């Protein structure tokens, strides 16, 4: 796996919301790691790439840093949507999470959040916001997830070492 | 402490839910670490052992990775129950969390979640699901916790190094 | 930045609660890191210092361990307050989080939680509890945050190495 931050997504159905979430993580290829939630800043040296699904890049049980948006529902026929949006600058980037009852609502919310994030930072912005949004109509108990995979916590340390 | 993932549990009472949770962590022996929540996968080389309580295996303030289930209540005489269940395969293992109003409800929920987790992974499963469930009847403000202690975040990195 | 744990605070306004929280983090100087939540124990060798705001001590996107209290509201003229309290002993220290509708309520809650935390540990306590509380009256959508910044996850490992 390259040094890019991989944006992945998935949906799933199961008998409980937690199991449906597990199924959605499996659909995205990240169900076999110990996910640790990051608050959502992109280091300047890393790109963000939408890949949809990762194929077992790390060993089972590896602690992996992620930014994620998710939504679960136990109501048949309800739509669940989640998404991430990001915007880059020379100094770094910002990721925003959103979940709602439709992909359109997630997109509108992400655009608003990214505009706010941009206003807040006096950075040299490059390019337009990018969005990755996924929606799912619930059969019985369903979940949807979109995640930005930063990679193993261990490598965050190696990167820090390399900069010294 | 061995390389096993230790499953511990405890309950506590205090004047606020957060303090009751702190007391429950103390009862389990993990109140003096900085707990970082993992999403619940077991690496293939590690066993899971129910030990009930750990006795100060790390220095105060060490960041420690855990999977945990908890429940608090401020209603006297209410029962709070939490539990973890896990199932192992040659490729690794899966832990599931649950909390409910009784140990029986937690057990039923965990069995369902583990069956779903198993269906989701094409792994070479070994043995039956194992459960660790703890319940507590609230006196004034009470909490119950069950946690799987993976150990210091630092050692996750050393393990990763060792595998290279 | 010294080895002290820095307590910072801020408030912010934006069009969504998440963006207002981002603005509050910016006000505290910690909006450009990937915050990882710790459960709130202070190692014996570290001091806790109230600094209000940090000035870019780490590179953008660094995973940083924090204990935090926050509160958001979308109701104009509502007051949101958050705070941390801590107490030190020879063996280490304990931080407690609180949020409420006023700084006075946060302070009362923190004192109660710290008294409980102290009762729970048979430690050689030194000094009185210290509190850092911040409140904000919402204009449209507002947030307040108080955080204890432990520093990069990476350095937690170096400290662990150093102790061996």
Automatic annotation (TrEMBL), chains A, B, C:
Entry's EC annotation: 4.1.1.19
Cofactor(s) recorded in Swiss-Prot or TrEMBL: pyruvate
Domain of life per record: Archaea
Keyword Lyase: yes
Gene Ontology molecular function: arginine decarboxylase activity
Keywords: Decarboxylase, Lyase, Pyruvate
Substrates-to-products reaction catalysed: L-arginine + H(+) = agmatine + CO2
PANTHER family in the record: PYRUVOYL-DEPENDENT ARGININE DECARBOXYLASE (PTHR40438)
Similarity section: Belongs to the PdaD family.
Protein name: arginine decarboxylase
Organism: Haloplanus ruber
């Amino acid at each position: 796996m390259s040094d890019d931050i991989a944006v992945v997504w998935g949906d799933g159905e199961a008998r409980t919301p937690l199991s449906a979430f597990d199924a959605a993580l499996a659909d995205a290829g990240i169900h076999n790691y110990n996910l640790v939630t990051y608050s959502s800043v992109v280091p300047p040296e890393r790109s963000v790439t939408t890949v949809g699904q990762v194929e077992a890049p790390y060993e089972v049980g590896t602690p992996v840093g992620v930014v994620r948006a998710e939504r679960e529902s136990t109501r048949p026929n309800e739509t669940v949507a989640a998404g991430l949006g990001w915007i880059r600058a020379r100094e770094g980037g910002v990721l925003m999470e959103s979940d709602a009852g439709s992909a359109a609502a997630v997109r509108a919310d992400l655009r608003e959040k990214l505009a706010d994030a941009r206003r807040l930072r006096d950075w040299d912005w490059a390019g337009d916001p990018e969005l990755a949004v996924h929606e799912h109509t619930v059969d019985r108990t369903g979940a949807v997830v979109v995640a930005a995979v930063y990679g193993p916590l261990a490598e965050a340390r190696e990167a820090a070492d390399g900069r010294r």
